Structures are given as structure tokens and as C-alpha cells.
Amino acid sequence: MPHTSPHSRTSSPTDIPLRDQDDDALLERMKADDADAYRLLVERHVDRAYALALRTLRNPADAEDVAQEALVKAWTHRHSWQPGKAKFSTWLYRVVFNRCIDLKRMPSNSCLDDVAEPEDDQPDSVDTIQRRQVYSRLEDAMATMPEQQRAALTLAYFDDMGNAEIAAVLGTTVQAVESLLKRGRQGLRERLRRSERDIRHIFAEA
Asked: Given this model, what pLDDT does residue 163 score?
């Protein structure tokens, strides 16, 4: 009976289907100009990149542009990617966030309130309407907060990031993030003091 060494049974990364490979493996392939690996990375991360931009800018068109710019930058800078230095998602969200800050500092003649919402001929349920009202109040309250506090809360509660990853996205320290979250929660509770109990509960400290 022929002997099979352990090494002969070990699959190389190229043996794993592309869709089953992790981001680091896809990035290595992208560095080698693999467009399919890049498209899969885009597919994995475009929705969250857009969501972060939308929550920061509150303008769908601008948010879409920012997400696209960040993902294009991933391709144009593919040869400079350094494995192990940062997660791709962390790098991407930092690019998105920084671009959003740049846009918010630029004078603009457009306003989200001037953009008409698309009509929907389907009646909304009471639960859907109430949920929209909750998130509308949250967004309105967060829109008045300092930029860094709003960003930290957004990444923590909407993107489910830990403090270390938030610090990497914002380019600051974990201690600074902890302070931002603490002050952000306090600020939100103050802004939402007249709102429903379920809204305040979302940001209640453990």
C-alpha cells in the first residue's frame, strides 16, 4: 500500500475555491492582478462601506460615490498592500470615513432634506412606521454630535466593531475610543431624554 505523506494531503490556497478564501488570501491574489479576487472583495464589503458612508453623510448619492472611490482605491493601490498590517475591512472603513470627513468640510449647495424620497404605493405596517421613527430620531440626534463621537458610536453600534478596530479606523487609541463612546452615550441620552424608553435603552451602558 503506497504511503501518503501529510504534506501531500495539505491543500494550498490555490486549491481552495475563490469564494471560500478569506480576505487576506484574496488580497494576495489581487496584488497579482487577479480581477476576480478583487470583484469578490468588492462584493463582500461594498454594502457595509456604503452604509457607513450613508450614516456619516446622510446623502445616498454622496455615500455611493464615497464607497465606490474607496473600493477603486483598493484596486489602484493593490501592489502596496502589506499582509498582516491591517484587516482589509479596517483599511476600507478608514478610507471611507476620512473621505466622508473631507466631503463634510467642503461647502455644498445640496441638502438631504431637499431630496424627495421615492414614493411607495405599499402601505407600511405600524411596526415599520414605528421602527422608522426610532431610527429617524436616533439619526437626528447623532447628526448634532461631534464628528468623532458620532463616528465611534456608529462603528460600535451599527457596524459591531470592537474598540481596537474602531481605533484603527479613526486613527486614534483604544483609550480615546473608550472616552469617545462614554461621552457619546452621555450626549445621546441628553439629546434623547424626551424620546421613547426603547431608544434610550439601545445606548444604555451595560
From this structure: 93
